[in-house]
User: Fold these one by one.
Assistant:
Number 1:
Amino acid sequence: MTDRRTRAIEAAKQIKLERYSEAQAVFVAGSIIRGTDTKYSDIDLVVVFKEVTSAWRESFIYSDFPVEAFVHDPKSLRYFFEEVDAKSGCPSLPHMVLEGIPYPDTSFSTALKEEAADLIKKGPPALSPEDLRNRRYFVTDFVDDLREPRNRLETTAAAVRLYEILADFYLRANRYWSAKGKSIPRTLQSHDPLIAERFTSSFQVLFETGNTARVVELAADILAPHGGFLFNGHKLTAPETWKKP
């Protein structure tokens, strides 16, 4: 256990005593606990009370550590598990509970970990045919921006956006949990090291040289099993209530 990890765990225990003394459990999570942190990494805390009026998230500094605290009771935690994270396809809160170090380690914290594990094991909800078509369309739209880019600035902007939506498409279309931002490479690697390497190398070439060919080819290969690129005939209909007098 690294010195910084040890200090982070001790800081979390003190935070519970000083700020959340009535909490039933605190889960200490994040890159510091995984051992992949930098000097700017924060401590992620999931704080669970017996009951709160409403869940909240707050940020603060404690003993030189940036801290992100996600405060819940079991009912709000379950709501975020099922109605927010599961439906978005990115189970960040269940992962924090499952991977986090509980303090104190009791039957209460164990039950919450089991609930998080059950949700993650179940996998994300399947994409509907309509959702899959819409995602194919949006990937196609960004890929078209890369086929004959006007300049490097636009190429970079389009590629940054495409990286996340293409990774999300690959993961969700294959019934894997998705990820956002810096978690994407780790998530891809855990499911398919070959596709993870293609993502890394293809986008690296694009960002370093401006050559978009490998990214376009990667997108084509990912979309191919699901119908390929989609533009002609696609339609998005707004809800009837989206009107103002």
Note: The mean pLDDT is 95.
Number 2:
Amino acid sequence: MNANQIQRILGSILISIASLSIVSNSSEAQPSLVQCQPPQPDEYILLVLSQTWDNHQTLQRSLSQQLQANLCQYLDDTVTRVAGFKNLENAKNWARYIRELSGLSAFVVRSPSPEEMPSNNSAYNPQPLGKGYAVLVDYFNQPELASQIRQILRENVGLVAYGQRHYLLAMHTTSQKAANSTLRQLSDRGFWTMVVDSRRVILLTRAVNL
């Protein structure tokens, strides 16, 4: 083995070590995420779909110092949780400001109260939803979202249980194409929407009345 070959091998080893160092440092820069904490009673928070640490830092620099922002996990998404709002109007104004400033989706979340749960004239009759695809919407303890979705889709909106939480049921279908189309339609309008295997969903009522 001549000197040139040895230099090439050593160069390759150094590049590999440098690459490993970069990956390691990058991993250390990303904080381990915890599940987002729900709002306290009489508190409003924002959940911003920031997805990355860079987006979170950019967002944090644009917020008032009186607001507390931290990165956390909500369902399968990485979000920025912004706390410190005592009234709904202030929280909505900040959500609008964040959407206009960054283009990121921002949602107001508040503590639930029993009278705010979507209701139905008849008693709940829990049963498996069955085979197919379910388009679910997280209503963030704001049941008035059901009427908004009903106006958009011109269909009844149901209430279901999935993963030990309640969601609005926007659609149940055997067509993946139809489910994805409804997902895009609602997501484009700012709703926190997902498509899941409907066999894992428990139907509580097919139409909620507000």
Note: Residues 1-29 have pLDDT under 50 and may be disordered.
